[in-house]
Amino acid sequence: MKRVYADEKWCLGCKLCEYNCAFANTNQPDMAVALKNTEIVPRIKVEETGKINFAVSCRHCKNPICIQSCITGALYKENGVVMMDKNKCVNCLTCVLVCPYGAIVEDSGGSVFKCELCIKNICKEPACVKGCPNKALLFEER
Q1: Domain check: are 5 and 43 in the same one?
Q2: What is the pLDDT of residues 71-87, one digit of tens each?
Q3: Could you point out which of 50, 68, 123, 139 has its C-alpha 20 to 30 Å from the C-alpha of 9?
Q4: Count: domains in the chain
Q5: How many contiguous H segments (helices) and E segments (strands) does the chain have?
Q6: What predicted TM-score, i.e. pTM, was given to this entire model?
């Protein structure tokens, strides 16, 4: 299964992956209109540690502990991708606590979200990968 991989030696820390991710999940045609005066809520996060930058997103684990710990069944796997049914989520935040990668996050409204590889969007590849100017993000099978 293809996944998003970060190559930290090419990451500039520009955070364009975050903006492209947030925009892709608005389902609007214009980025400036979609993101102007709004909180950017990406499903990928650039971490900066000293001189090294790298993007962190859901790894879509083979045996995801987040799915095992979800008390309502809101997290499930579909074709190898860990997905979330927001209608079933009760915002208990157990998935946030157990994810070893910090890839499931809570937004300011108390809702939980995560990367779903842009499967629900019209992109052919994840928007974060497509929008990375330095090719520091790769969408490939390893």
Answers
A1: yes
A2: 999 999 999 999 999 89
A3: 123
A4: 2
A5: 5, 8
A6: 0.88
Listed in sequence order, the residues at least 6 apart from 10 whose beta carbon sits closer than 8 Å to its beta carbon are 134, 135, 136
Question: Hey, what's the torsion of the CAs at 4, 120, 17, 91, to 10 degrees?
Answer: -90
Cα 67 to Cα 37: distance, rounded to the nearest angstrom: 34
Residues 34 and 45 in one domain: yes
E strands in the chain? 3-6, 45-49, 52-56, 75-78, 81-84, 105-106, 112-113, 137-140
Model pLDDT for residues 81-139, shown as the tens digit of each residue: 999 998 999 999 999 999 999 999 887 777 788 999 998 876 778 999 999 999 999 99
CA–CA gap between residue 17 and residue 108 (Å, rounded): 20
Residue 18 sits in a domain whose CATH number is 3.30.70.20
**Domain range enclosing 90:** 60-114
